[in-house]
Hints:
The complex is a heterodimer of chains A (112) and B (113). Chain A is mainly β. Chain A has strands at 5-7, 10-13, 19-24, 31-38, 42-50, 53-57, 64-68, 74-78, 87-94, 102-103, 107-111.
Amino acid sequence: KAGVTQTPRYLIKTRGQQVTLSCSPISGHRSVSWYQQTPGQGLQFLFEYFSETQRNKGNFPGRFSGRQFSNSRSEMNVSTLELGDSALYLCASSADSPKGYTFGSGTRLTVV
Amino acid sequence: AQTVTQSQPEMSVQEAETVTLSCTYDTSESNYYLFWYKQPPSRQMILVIRQEAYKQQNATENRFSVNFQKAAKSFSLKISDSQLGDTAMYFCAFMNRDDKIIFGKGTRLHILP
Lengths: 112, 113
C-alpha cells in the first residue's frame, strides 16, 4: 500500500513568487491535513480538507490556501512568498482521524 | 488555548538502555487523543503510539509504552531496550475534537553505541 506522497521533495523560490505543493494521500483516505515545520515555531497546523471541503484552518495569513480534489489529492498554494515561509511542509492523511494521521516526507521549501 | 510541552530538548542514552521522554499538555476537553510521533533524518513523521483519553490503560507497542496520567495531564513515552534506529526527533501531540493536531516542540533523542 503506497504511503502519502508529496511532490516535489525540494523547492527553491524567490521572494514574491508563488508556489504550489502537492499531496497524494493513501488510497481510501479522505482527510488531508497540512503542517508547516520550522526550527523556531515547530509544527504548526495549516488546514485540513475532507471530501473537498476545508474543515479546519490554522492561524496563517490568506497567502496560504489549499484545495482538495475529488480523488482526495490535495494542493496547497502560497502566494507572494516571504523569506519566513522557508520551511518543511508536511501533509498527512487519515481514513479515520482518531486513529492518527499518516505523514508524507514533506516538501522542503526555501525562499531566497 | 491547548498546548503541548516537552521539557527535554535533547537526550542521549546508551544502546539497550531504557529512556523516558516527558510530555505535558493543557486542555479543558475531556475526550481527546494523544500521540507520540518519531521523525528520523528522513523527515517522515512516523506514528509511534496512540492513547485515547477515555481509556485508563496505558498504550503499549512492542518496546514503546506510555505513562498516561490524565489528572496531571502528563503523557510520557518509555522506550525499552533502545536501539540505534530509535535515534530521531520525538514529538508529543494532542488531537482535539476538531481533529487538529497540536505538537510539542520535540525532543531530540540520540542512542549511543
